[in-house]
Specification:
Elements: H1 9-17, E1 34-43, H2 46-49, E2 58-61, E3 64-73, H3 88-95, E4 101-106, H4 125-144, H5 148-157, H6 162-170, H7 177-186, H8 198-212, E5 215-220, H9 227-234, E6 241-243, H10 246-257, E7 261-262, E8 271-272, H11 280-295, H12 302-313, E9 316-322, E10 340-343, H13 348-355, H14 357-361, E11 363-368, E12 373-375, E13 386-391
Parallel strand pairs: 4-5, 5-6, 9-13
Antiparallel strand pairs: 1-3, 2-3, 7-8, 9-10, 11-12, 11-13
Helix pairs in contact: 1-10, 4-8, 6-7, 7-8
Length: 393
């Protein structure tokens, strides 16, 4: 989770994970990255098999499987972060661990470039999106450093592929040679590395950012955002933009945890368990949230944003490994115990490695519990697949 200071990023994080995070109305409340566990929702296969599941690494409620995902709330980013200003070095170092970015933007336009409160609506939230893009691009271009010309000469002298030497340079960011190749295809840069200019480096860095760190926009403080600013955000090319009200979501999840309301994260409604247990302030707050939800297309947007990041940006699906394809159990008799997220296009063998390295190495075949058919290592997994892996001794 990224963004400039004071846009509600830590509130969003706390709402999505119910993990403790410092929340205050001033810049740099977050210094050290906060880590927590959120979840994405998927239909549980027990509904199709008419069995009662006994989850282990996830939970199931009314036929919905809640699959755990890791979230990191990093320090706010300010102009010049790639040069080390503010918490820039810490932010960018934390960014190395991310598969995707949720950029929390103040859609109300009430915070300036450095996160200080400014007159209502005076800041264009599009400027915040472009600023963060630029800071990450500058940082990624800077990783090549002053030695990039020497690297270029090496590719010519030793006939080394450009993607190979770039993959070595960016390996610490979790980027693969495949990411590099795709970025080179989309960036309008010269084929010969030694002909690149500084501008070419930035164009490549921008393409690499889009490929390796895809980003979704959480248009936060949606309840206070002027319609024209929200519309400008929605019309941006290349981004999924989701209006969010993280303060409302945090309030709802805390109220649900306290047993005051019944609420499923992401829903457009909630019910009060016992009105007599609410004090006047709580009742007023819940009435305000209910009014907002009635007008919203996707609830508070927080859960929707997390799920879109995994299922749309990262193009993932949920699969279920079992040891007994008939009873859908593991060795301890648990029914559909585990749910795993894998990238769409993954194979049965990829799933075996996800469960355990030894299973992947000793993979022989697999069995699709839905069809009862034997499948090979190259079988392409489908969302909701229940698979038994058969491995050698």
């Amino acid at each position: 989770m990224v963004g400039k200071p004071n846009v509600g990023k830590s509130t969003f994080f706390a709402a999505a994970t119910l993990a403790p995070a410092q929340i205050a109305n001033y810049p740099f409340t977050t210094i050290e990255a906060n880590r927590g566990v959120g979840f994405v929702k998927s239909r549980c296969p027990h509904m199709d098999f008419q069995l009662q599941c006994t989850p282990r690494n996830s939970r199931c409620e009314d036929g919905v499987r809640f699959v755990a995902v890791e979230m990191i709330d990093v320090a706010g980013l300010v102009p010049g972060a790639h040069e080390g200003k503010g918490m820039g070095n810490k932010f960018l170092d934390d960014l190395r661990q991310a598969n995707a970015l949720i950029h929390v933007v103040d859609a109300s336009g009430c915070t300036d470039a450095e996160g200080n409160v400014c007159p209502d609506g005076s800041r264009d939230p599009l400027d915040d999106v472009r600023f963060l893009e630029s800071e990450i691009d500058q940082w990624m271009a800077g990783i090549l450093g002053k030695g990039w010309e020497r690297m270029a000469k090496r590719t010519e002298a030793e006939s080394i592929k450009v993607e190979t030497i770039l993959a070595e340079k960016y390996a610490g960011l979790g980027m693969t040679e495949s990411d590099i190749k795709l970025a080179l295809k989309t960036a309008p840069v010269p084929e010969k590395f030694h002909k690149w200019t500084q501008e070419d480096l930035l164009m490549f860095a921008s393409a690499l950012r889009k490929q390796s760190k895809p980003m979704i926009i959480a248009a936060n403080k949606a309840d206070m955002a002027p319609p024209e600013k929200m519309q400008r955000l929605r019309e941006m090319d290349g981004y999924i933009v989701i209006p969010t009200a993280s303060e409302y979501e945090l309030g709802l999840r805390r109220a649900a945890k306290a047993g005051l309301i019944n609420y499923i994260p992401g829903a457009r409604e909630f019910s009060i368990v016992d009105p007599s247990k609410l004090n006047p302030a709580q009742k007023k707050g819940l009435d305000k949230v209910a009014e907002f939800l009635a007008k919203s297309e996707a609830g508070t947007g927080v859960q929707n944003c997390v799920e879109q990041a995994f299922f749309k940006l990262l193009d993932m699906l949920v699969v279920y490994p079992v040891e007994d394809e008939g009873k859908l159990t593991d060795k301890d008799g648990r029914v559909l115990p585990d749910a795993f997220l894998l990238k769409r296009g993954s194979t049965a063998k990829d799933m075996a490695f996800k469960v355990h390295t030894d299973l992947g190495k000793k993979f022989i075949r697999a069995i699709n519990a839905r069809t009862k058919r034997v499948i090979g290592h190259d079988y392409i997994l489908q969302d909701g697949d229940v698979i038994k892996i058969v491995a050698g001794a």
